[in-house]
Design brief:
The chain has one domain. With about 220 residues, it is of the alpha+beta class. The longest helix has 14 residues. Helix content is about 20%, strand content about 35%.
Length: about 220
């Protein structure tokens, strides 16, 4: 056999060989059957101890949430409940009043196991304005036919940075907040009716919301 023919046979054998082979001692079938374990997801944050929140944490937290959404998606301007979940925290659920006027009706889903916080009536402004506001502030909250206890919180310094286009202004900065507040432990799963009313004669303001609340576990990620 000539050397030229031998070279041709060797090239043909190389071309007919498999494109790749498993490394010695490596079972590709076993590898595909046992993919690397996924990194464990972060555990959900524990519910906030809502009754332990300070006056500043109550008012700075709620007002920070209220100014975090642009007006067209604002839970405070919402008339149906469509935007109840906008910018909510994982471990504390806020409910909104209104900017005044007629009573609105909202239907909202609240996550199970999460405490709830909301005002009957609240404002931010100068400390003296808060004092006048609280002198005539009053209201009520009734959950499933049972009146709830509201807590008055007077002028408290807070700092706010409003989102672009929110309903209360963007360059708020350091200010004072006050109001009548309700703190609720997590509600039992199921449906609940909550009626909120509030007013202050100091600024001729009144607000009211009838909430139809559904307390349920959040849908699994990827569910349809």
């Amino acid at each position: 056999m000539t050397s030229r023919r031998l070279v041709a046979l060797l090239l043909g054998a190389l071309l007919l060989a498999p494109a790749c082979t498993s490394a010695p001692g490596h079972d590709s079938a076993a590898s595909s059957a046992h993919p690397p374990a996924e990194e464990p997801s972060e555990s959900p944050s524990p519910p906030v101890a809502v009754h332990a929140l300070t006056a500043a944490e109550v008012q700075d937290g709620w007002w920070g949430w209220a100014v975090s959404a642009e007006a067209k998606r604002s839970p405070v301007l919402d008339t149906t409940g469509r935007w109840c979940a906008e910018h909510q925290r994982e471990n504390l659920w806020y409910l909104a009043g209104t900017t005044g006027g007629e009573v609105v009706e909202r239907t909202c889903t609240v996550p199970v196991g999460v405490p709830v916080l909301f005002p009957l009536v609240t404002m931010f402004g100068e400390a003296a304005e808060c004092m006048d506001f609280m002198d005539t502030a009053k209201g009520s909250a009734v959950l499933d036919g049972t009146p709830l206890t509201a807590e008055p919180i007077g002028a408290t310094p807070i700092g706010l940075m409003g989102a672009p286009g929110n309903a209360f202004g963007e360059d708020i900065g350091n200010t004072w907040a006050c109001g009548l507040w309700v703190r609720l432990d997590p509600l039992a799963p199921g449906s609940h009716e909550l009626a909120i009313r509030g007013e202050s004669g100091a600024i001729d303001f009144s607000t009211g919301v009838d909430y139809h609340l559904r307390v349920a576990a959040p849908a699994p990620t990827g569910a349809v």
